[in-house]
Specification:
globular, 284 residues, 22% helix, alpha+beta, 2 domains
Length: 284
């Protein structure tokens, strides 16, 4: 059975960006008789070759592709059809296809709905066609909520955990609920360059996060809905990595001027450097 989970505010924002623009992803080299998606380096000819391979994996036919020279990202070749319904991005430095998006499948809606298990099978098959090695990864079905513009899509995400630490590598595929077509594909493979053993304990990270929010000073104006949840992960920002604790809080905070916690629901994440204890980010 697939595990369902809700994304926090940050992940909702990121997920929507990915689904609309299809801008992430790095593929592994494909070992086998099928097409090779990744290359040692890329020029426009190779970018087109990779684009055609991705279109074949989508099951599309009679699609004329071109390199979109006007695309404003220097690090990538953007390959698309004349109507810009398909967009494939190929990294210039190593020739890897890093994302695929199909606007027709993103926008298509209707009353018909295929089962989630069938959709996950289609997503898995597509990942394998694209040469992604899913060994050691855990699959979860994610939800962006009923009000999301992507509510017509199943979203499947494979993540990897090592030594209890969530790694930044992942593969995410969106499948149209009605047609079963692949809407977006994003896959990131990031080698880990930092130790996975934290110097700060979970308890220390939670205490630092509590102090950052000032919860102790707010007293009975705050009603905790659950105990703080802390998890280790590696974050990677432009090649700079850090091991962090992400501490999630769910609570109700009283409105200004009232005595009890009957007011505003809060979902807050505090990111703490797992080695130095520095609070790096507050997401609300």
């Amino acid at each position: 059975m697939l595990k369902n989970k809700k994304l926090n505010a940050t992940m909702i924002t990121v997920g929507l960006i990915l689904l609309v623009s299809g801008v992430l992803a790095a593929l592994e080299l494909y070992n086998g008789s099928a097409v090779v998606i990744g290359r040692a380096s890329a020029d426009k000819e190779k970018a087109l070759e990779n684009g055609r391979a991705a279109v074949d994996a989508l099951g599309e036919s009679n699609v004329d592709l071109e390199v979109l020279d006007s695309y404003p990202i220097d690090e990538f070749y953007a390959v698309g059809d004349k109507d810009r319904k398909l967009l494939i991005k190929v990294k210039k430095s190593d020739g890897k296809t890093i994302s695929v998006s199909n606007s027709d499948a993103i926008n298509e809606s209707g009353n018909k709905r295929i089962p989630a298990d069938e959709a996950s099978g289609k997503a898995t098959q597509f990942a394998e066609k694209m040469g992604v090695n899913l060994d050691g990864f855990t699959l979860a079905q994610e939800s962006l909520g009923a009000d999301s513009p992507a509510k017509n899509l199943y979203i499947f995400k494979w993540t990897k955990t090592e030594k209890g630490v969530l790694l930044p590598s992942y593969t995410e595929i969106a499948v149209n609920m009605g047609s079963g077509k692949i809407a977006t594909f994003n896959s990131v493979d990031i080698p880990i360059t930092v130790p996975l053993e934290p110097k700060k304990t979970r308890v220390e990270a939670v205490d630092l996060a509590v102090n950052t929010l000032g919860l102790a000073d707010k007293g009975d104006k705050v009603k905790m809905l659950a105990q703080p949840d802390a998890a280790l992960r590696v974050v990677d920002k432009k090649g700079i990595q850090a091991l962090v604790w992400v501490v999630d809080f769910k609570y109700i905070e009283a409105l200004s001027g009232t005595a009890d916690a009957g007011g505003i629901g809060r979902l807050v994440s505090i990111v703490v450097d797992a080695n130095t204890g520095e609070v790096l980010q507050k997401v609300q």
